[in-house]
Task: structure prediction
Amino acid sequence: MTPDRVGTVSVPAVPVSPGPSIEPARDPYRVYLDSLTSAESRRTMRGCLDRLAALVSGDEVSSGAGQPWHLLRYEHTVRIRALMTERDWSPSYVNKHLVALRRVLREAWRLGLMSAEEYQRAADLPTVEHTRLPAGQHVPPEVVGAALAACDRDDSAAGVRDAALLATLYSTGCRRAEISGLSLGDYDPGSRSLRVRGKRDKERMVYLTTEAVVRMERWLAVRGRSAGAMFCPISRLGRLRTRDRGPAPMTGQAVADILARRLAEAGAGARTPHDFRRTFIGELLDAGVDLATAQALVGHSSPATTARYDRRPERRRREAVDRITLPAPRPL
Result:
């Protein structure tokens, strides 16, 4: 994102020299990423900032580290927003990158690299307005049952772990990063509860079904009761991987990979952890659970987000159309 390269994609050139290189401790890119509490959030936002740096510089392998983010002004950021939309990025994808851009500019201001007015002007970018249905698809109960059966056919430690993981995913609607971040201390078998740390390090309580508790207890009999991650990687020899004398944590991607593998073994179509989350919310609302309770269980910051997963209006619209009869073909 050097000033002499900014013009390569028709972004107005930064009008001043970037000066000496930014020391890592005062690099807005690094400071912003360090402020994020979730490893998955850091990975996501790093990708966004790296893509923005590549977009502006024209260098596909460009990194956001060490870039003069503090030199961006409103004319530059509004052009960056236009470039993203011109590349047919989806509105939600553009908005995610705008969040990363605003946040790194805020860190530049906090570090004293740009004035408050320069920051406010550069960050004053409207989101891309859009109306989209939630991504993903419903997971039928028979698909979940087939995946659990695939786990049960595997008599190794991985089979027991994966069955407990899928049962937890289905009965709580947790995000994959929340599942991977669970520790043994988060589990209370008496209340069938799990303490979950969600986005922005917000904690909430979720609850397992009685069937999921059975799966969890089977896994704990294999895992043991030592402190550490609830779900851990397992070696090909069937050994639980450890860290600091306890089970090591797995990544959110590992959760998605386990789900994909067990569904494939069951002969079911591909589903994602978010599909399980979508299904959980839909099942709650179908069962008459009020919107506020559903919102609290899944950790949405706004009830409007939870309402987007409500399948009932869709069903009512379909039933309304079913009242119309297509006329039989006949000659005039």
